[in-house]
Amino acid sequence: MIVAVLxxxxxxxxxxxxxxxxxxxxxxxxxxxxxxxxxxxxxxLSLLSFLILLAxxxxxxxxYFAGLYVRHKE
Length: 74
Known about the structure:
Blueprint: H1 2-17, H2 21-42, H3 47-73
Helix pairs in contact: 1-3, 2-3
């Protein structure tokens, strides 16, 4: 949960400060590669890991959209 909150905040800040899609795409790629690499090294790569990764990416994307909403509301 702590990682999801941090990713939400990261997405919120990137949505608030920039309006560029490549930024959130690059952040999503970094999260995906680092999570899969960490789980592979630790031997914990499974279906549950991919579901957790999906939840992490959804938290970051929802933070990004919330940041965009706040930015355009002003």
